[in-house]
Design goal:
heterodimer; A: 263 residues; alpha/beta; Rossmann fold; four-stranded antiparallel β-sheet; B: 265 residues; mainly alpha; 0% strand
């Protein structure tokens, strides 16, 4: 479905994603997990074509997203949906307007049919009756669910989720997690979920990729990851503060900073 | 001892200056590429007609009050200052021509541009910057909507169309306000005010004002959209971009005004 070959991304001196190969399987959920700053969101943006790779290729529907013309990329994006970390709802539109936006843009459907589709999507996420609220009037969980409904409006082939449960209370997080699971399963979609929520990632994914410092350190089924004896994997899934993944980044000696001496 | 050691601060200074200049050139190039890319969507589907109209309303209609107030007070001050200067030479009858020429050739386009930069240009930069911070620009891309066509293009075109219209209103209000002060308050002959004005203003003067307003409008659109589009995705980044947009657009208007004036003299 989506394939990355020798994919890397560099911002200035920082290599956010080191050269890696990745394969997103069709009709399933792939969870990309890792700590903060491990490069998982950058990898998601590369896979969705939002970032151009510094090297390598991203193949979607046999086309290289980093090298096709802009118009073709926008055409391919009609088959994609994305739920952003902070929902990214359009501030000038209400809930109805946000969910209907892709339908207004890319279809010639009658307004009555669009209204029915929007109501169906809002019913799916439990927000029917809230269609006239503005984004500023929504809680974090509600905004995420509107973003979810918007991403699903065009029934895309693949949906990308960037930290879908971050900043949410456990109930809202559970609602979003089960929505992703149920929708993808029923609609035979492909989903890529970036998360540092170990429980959510391992419970809904068919395939898990674990990242650290811009590289993939483990991949496999949730059971493979749970059974992994790699110390870095164990530290991450058990949430241990001590282990091979350090709390501090390597830098010059602490004493040099305290004494103001040049190393 | 390094014999050129005492020159090090000078090298550092010129190094910094050179880096700044290269960054400026790069920003100019980026702004040109962005606006050219946006303008290439002008004749392509989907049409952005509804968005042009919305931006024309935000830039034009919403700036009307400030333009009327500024135009009125500019005309009134010009009439006061002009009267006391002309009275020293016994040429009060030239007041109408002096007020009208100053406004049409210079003050209308420049002050009108400053008002649009302050009221609408800054809000364009802030709006686009906030869209960047909140990932709304990325969301548009993922919904297969090109932000350059949807967000940048309508604002550049609306600014280019709105400013000449606002400047025309500024000119009319300014000349009328000058008439009120000159004729009604200071006692200048009304016939002389109007006749001298009509005799001295040529199509060349009017065209100069129009061209300036169109160029300034385009500049404001390009600078303010570019600064918002490339702003750092942080609250400080948006605030900095907004300030920079106002400063660069204002200074740019004055610099280009000098160049255009030298052509239209």
């Amino acid at each position: 479905m989506i394939r990355g070959e020798s994919l890397s991304k560099t911002f200035g001196d920082i290599q956010a994603v080191k050269p890696l190969d990745i394969h997103i399987r069709e009709h399933g959920i792939t969870a990309i997990m890792g700590g903060s700053g491990s490069g998982k969101t950058t990898l998601l943006r590369l896979l969705s074509g939002l970032e151009k790779p510094s090297s390598g290729h991203v193949w979607f529907a046999s086309e290289d997203l980093g090298r096709i013309p802009e118009r073709r990329l926008f055409k391919l994006r009609e088959q994609m949906g994305m739920v952003f970390q902070y929902s990214a709802l359009l501030n000038s539109l209400d809930v109805y307007g946000n969910v209907a936006f892709p339908l207004h843009e890319h279809t010639n459907l009658d307004e009555e049919i669009i209204r029915r589709i929007v109501m169906m999507k809002l019913e799916q996420v439990g927000l029917r009756g809230f269609e006239h609220l503005m984004p500023s009037e929504l809680s974090g969980g509600m905004a995420k669910r509107v973003a979810f409904a918007r991403a699903m409006a065009m029934d895309p082939r693949v949906v990308f989720f960037d930290e879908p449960t971050s900043g949410l209370d456990p109930i809202s997080a559970g609602v979003i997690t089960s929505l992703i699971h149920d929708t993808v399963r029923k609609a035979h979609m492909t989903a890529v979920v970036v998360t540092h929520d170990v429980h959510a990632g391992l419970s809904i994914a068919d395939h898990v990729i674990l990242m650290w410092q811009g590289a993939i350190i483990a991949s496999g089924s949730p059971d493979d990851i749970r059974a992994s004896e790699d110390e870095r994997v164990r530290q991450f899934i058990e949430g241990r503060p001590d282990g091979p993944i350090p709390f501090s980044r390597s830098t010059r000696p602490y004493l040099d900073d305290l004494l103001g001496t040049q190393p | 001892m390094n014999p050129t050691g005492f020159l090090t601060p000078f090298f550092a200074f010129f190094g910094r200056l050179g880096r700044r200049f290269l960054m400026f050139l790069q920003a100019m190039g980026d702004a040109t590429v962005l606006s050219a890319n946006a303008l290439s969507h002008l004749l392509r589907r989907p049409w952005q007609g509804r968005h042009f109209v919305m931006q024309l309303h935000a830039l034009g209609v919403d700036s009307l009050v400030i333009i009327i107030i500024t135009g009125a007070f500019t005309g009134m001050v010009l009439a006061l200052q002009g009267y006391y200067t002309l009275a020293k030479f016994g040429s009060e009858s030239l007041l109408g021509a002096g007020v009208a020429l100053s406004i049409i050739r210079e003050l209308g386009p420049v002050l009108g541009a400053f008002m649009v930069i302050g009221r609408a240009g800054s809000s364009i930069t802030a709006e686009i910057g906030i869209m960047r911070v909140t990932e709304q620009l990325d969301a548009l891309q993922m919904m297969a909507v090109n932000p350059k066509a949807r967000i940048i293009l309508p604002r550049i075109v609306a600014a280019t169309i709105a400013l000449p219209l606002l400047v025309a209103i500024f000119d009319v209000i300014g000349i009328a306000a000058g008439y009120l002060v000159g004729v009604e308050l200071l006692g200048v002959n009304p016939g002389a005010y109007v006749a001298e004005m009509m005799a001295k203003i040529t199509a060349h003067d009017l065209n100069g004002g129009w061209v300036k307003a169109i160029v300034f409008g385009f500049m404001i659109g390009v600078i303010c959209t570019f600064m918002g589009y490339r702003s750092e995705p942080t609250t400080e980044g948006v605030a900095r971009a907004t300030t920079q947009a106002v400063v660069i657009a204002s200074v740019g208007v004055l610099m280009v005004d000098y160049i255009l004036t030298s052509f239209f003299l």
